[in-house]
Specification:
By secondary structure, this protein is α/β, with parallel strands linked by helices. It contains 8 helices and 9 strands.
């Protein structure tokens, strides 16, 4: 069974690719940075059983034609894709009044429009087979908001609405669509967070999560055939403070 992970070369996406690979899936990692792709392939190679179990593809998710071309290449190389994971994302903290239009557009294009395009592209094959699973990676701030992250929060909130709407559109085609909303997870994106100890005190479980814990949730959703249109918070209980 084949799984495609956009944004699979770093952070949460990399952990998800690793989890699916170790569970026996054939995994295609898609990312923009070629060097990160090469590094990840080398690191995860130890979990492969065959040469073609782990593949890599370079793609800029903000460019529609690039996404379409890459998806076609994946179809020809990997074959039928049963699981699509949209983990590619960026964050640029800034108060709205200080935000540049180009930064806002880049956030929305990467975090929301990109996943919509990948879903539209891979849905064709899934609908023909009447089988498929889509997992979008959102964020807890898409539900609770956060000062200094207006554009980022908006993009992740939009992803929630998109996930639920798409789940309704494809419900009769045997396709499930869910979203994981991580809280504060130990990745490169959160390394520069100031006042970490104060944040940890606000998390009921008292710590930042690990990327592997989000990956566990993704694997769970991939195998849970009776769950669709769901937002699964992986945030140490932070949602309790909403």
């Amino acid at each position: 069974m084949a799984c495609v992970v956009y944004g699979g070369s770093r952070g949460i996406g990399k952990a998800i690719a690793s989890a699916f690979l170790q569970d026996g899936f054939r995994v295609a990692i898609v990312a923009r940075n070629v060097q990160h792709l090469e590094d990840t392939i080398s690191e995860l190679h130890e979990f492969t059983h065959t040469e073609d179990q782990l593949l890599r593809f370079s793609c800029d998710i903000t460019k529609e034609q690039d996404v379409i071309k890459t998806s076609e290449h994946i179809h020809h190389t990997v074959g039928a894709v049963s699981i699509l994971v949209n983990s590619a994302g960026i964050n640029q903290d800034s108060l709205l009044i200080k935000s540049k239009s180009t930064n806002i557009e880049d956030l929305i294009q990467t975090n929301l429009v990109g996943p919509m395009i990948t879903c539209r592209t891979f849905l064709r094959g899934m609908m023909q087979r009447k089988d498929g699973c889509i997992i979008n990676i959102g964020s807890i701030v898409g539900q609770r908001g956060n000062a200094g992250q207006t554009a980022y929060s908006a993009s992740k909130a939009g992803l929630v609405g998109f996930t639920k709407s798409l789940a309704k559109e494809v419900k009769d085609r045997g396709i499930r669509v869910n979203l994981i909303a991580p809280g504060f997870i130990d990745t490169d994106m959160t390394k520069g967070i100031i006042k970490r100890q104060e944040l940890e005190k606000a998390i009921p479980l008292g710590r930042f999560g690990m990327a592997s814990e989000v990956a566990d949730a993704a694997l769970f959703l991939a195998k849970s055939c009776y769950i669709t249109g769901h937002v699964l918070n992986v945030d140490g209980g932070l949602n309790l403070n909403i």
